[in-house]
Amino acid sequence: MAEINLLPWRDERRAELKQEFLAILGVVVAFAGLMVFVADLFISGQIKFQNDRNSYMKDNIAVLNKQVEEIREMQRKRTQLLDRMTVIQELQGNRPIIVRILDQLVRTVPDGVFYTNVKAREQVITIKGIAESNNRVSSLMRRLDASDWFKDPNLEGVKAEPEFGEQATTFNLTVKLQLPSRGEEEG
């Protein structure tokens, strides 16, 4: 049998396969590098796009926060104006009542009694004054109790004051307001 030496052919074939493998490996590495580069570009573009959107949202949120603050300020001013209007309306509505209360205070004062101080706080009127005698103070209390505008007169203190007369006294008195109903007030 003839001797055939296959080794050089095998070596050549191995060298070709090795070169082919290295070429394919190079192409795969180049393709993988290209894919990584493209993926990096894509992801960087997405990140930039999202950062631009976030920046746009932050700018708009800042504008909206400023508008919300302006709206709150306007609501606060509106509430203050409504409160002022309510106070003014109450004062306008109470104006005739105050006049009627003062008129009733004058009508209930008997002769020989003088008011030195009159204070009103909510529904209670505090009266300080001078009377010629204790009987005059009693008469004042009866008149206040008989009035449609006052109720529950309460004498807090009586003190003799000889400098104003023999039987003269100073007194402290509180009386509660009792607004009559509409029909009694108009009558």
Description:
This protein has a domain at 90-186: Alpha-Beta Plaits, CATH 3.30.70.2830. Helices cover 64% and strands 20% of the residues. It has three helices and four strands. The chain has helices spanning 7-108, 134-146, 182-186, and strands at 113-121, 124-131, 150-160, 169-177. Strands 1-2-4-3 form a four-stranded antiparallel sheet, with helices on one face. The longest helix is centred in the first third of the chain and has 102 residues, at 7-108. It starts with 6 loop residues before the first helix and ends with a helix. 8% of the residues are buried.
Q: What's the total number of strands?
A: 4
The CATH topology of the domain at 90-186: Alpha-Beta Plaits
Strand order in the largest sheet: 1-2-4-3
Shape: rod-shaped
Q: Give Rg in angstroms.
A: 51 Å
Unreliable spans = none
Sheet of most strands: 4 strands, antiparallel
Helix content: 55-70%
Taking the alpha carbons of the first and last residues, their distance comes to 152 Å
Write a short abstract of this structure.
With 187 residues, this protein is an alpha+beta fold. It is built from 3 helices and 4 strands. The chain has a domain at 90-186: Alpha-Beta Plaits, CATH 3.30.70.2830.
